[in-house]
Amino acid sequence: MQNQKVTFKNSRGEMLSGILEMPVNRRPYAYAIFAHCFTCAKNLATECFISRAITLEGIAVLRLDFTGLGAGDGPLGDSSFSSSVDDLVAAGYFLAENYAAPSLLAGHSLGGAAAICAAHQLPSVKAVATIGAPYAPEHITHLLQGKLEEIETSGAAEVSIGGRPFSVKKQFLEDIREKNMEPKIERLGRALLILHSPQDRTVSIENAARLYQAARHPKSFISLDGSDHLISNKHDALYIGEVIASWARRYLDRSEKEALKVEKQVAVRLGEQAYTTDVMVRQHGLTADEPESFGGNDFGPSPYELVAAGLGACTAMTLQMYARRKKWPLKEVRVHLDHYKEHAEDSGNAEDHTSKIDYFTRLIELDGPLSEEQRERLLEIANKCPVHRTLLSPIRIVSTLK
After folding, report:
1. Of 47, 59, 180, 257, which has the fewest beta carbons less than 10 angstroms from its beta carbon?
2. Which has the closest alpha carbon to 245: 285, 299, 205?
3. In the predicted structure, residue 294 carries a pLDDT above the cut 60
4. pLDDT value of position 41
């Protein structure tokens, strides 16, 4: 099961709804909380793609709806910056009580600022990542232009943000105006990753510069060149998740991950949409997919390409192992492969699909001052690599349902 719905209460007794996304093998070595952007929700495609990439690295991710947004309790418009911070802290307590305390916080836009503040109340957090985050929560008041006077005089007003109607109360404005982020950033005491697009027209790149200046080391900045504020390009979202997961490795405790014992060495998961498939091989995560022409997202190699990659890797390893044992001067091996199906030459019924056989073409490049005899011998050895022999041997696949 890829996503697990969870519910828990915040400090005000309001019920919050979240999605806990586990790695494919359901053996996370760390837990993270993802804070969505202002006016967004936990099921926004952007947040889903980012979380998916993080889970592939073996980190479980909890996405939640803030108070008054998505499936969170409270009337629409009751959400505030302070309540969002409180909700993140409540999510941290929930994880600590039911799974393991979170060690990574990530947040998009205003959720990034909330993540910085929440980290101060969650001692287990070792790293914080922000995406298009404002330096000060008050920055978002520019989204309310034309309604500020009405909010001030009437106490509330309905505004349209991103094509969605929201009731913004005066207390929301007062709350964000009171928040001074600079001390929080300076005394964060955790590793900080700042991701921001130079083309962000909602929260300008200057906010990232001010965040970076105020923060102390360790701190890092990644430019999301060409991306928009909502990260509407799915490839950008996947890239962000991969960057966060790779960066966080340096700061999260991986000792538990290395010691994990899983029932099966390979675990694969595919949901209801498209063909993007999560794969974990022991503690190593990767993505399989189909090209867009086949209805996929092209986020990774196809199943047959993975088989070809296994053959190529085994070929290279086998040749180097043999050459090193013989002390032959083989410097580098490069293997180029392709896969296709073709009708068997001796088939009497070319129209029958069962008469087609699989072909793997393999071009092997050997670098080094090898003799012709050595090169010919290495070609013979290539045809004896374990994966090659497996593909040519009778194979039994035993499948059971759980």
Report:
1. 180
2. 285
3. yes
4. 58
Contact 279, 289 (CB under 8 A): no
More confident residue, 135 or 128: 128
What domains, with CATH codes, occur in the chain? 3-258 (3.40.50.1820), 303-392 (3.30.300.20)
Q: Is 23 exposed, middle or buried (0-12, 13-18, 19+ CB in 10 A)?
A: buried
Q: Check: CB of residue 313 under 8 Å from CB of residue 345.
A: no
pTM score over 0.70:
yes
Which alpha helices (DSSP H) does 67-147 contain, by range? Answer: 81-98, 110-119
Q: Which residue has tokens 């060409």?
A: 226
**12 — phi, psi (to 5°)?**
-95, 5
**Burial category of 136 from C-beta neighbours within 10 Å (exposed 0-12, middle 13-18, buried 19 and up):** middle
DSSP 219-239: EEEEE-TT--TT--SHHHHHH
Flag whether pLDDT at 259 surpasses 50: no
137, 141, 143, 147: CA torsion to nearest 10: 150
CB-based contact 16:65 (threshold 8 Å) = yes
Q: Which residues pair with 343 in a beta bridge?
A: 356
Q: pLDDT tier at 111 (50, 70, 90 boundaries)?
A: very high
Write the CA distances from 316 to 50, 266, 308, 348, integer angstroms: 34, 22, 12, 37
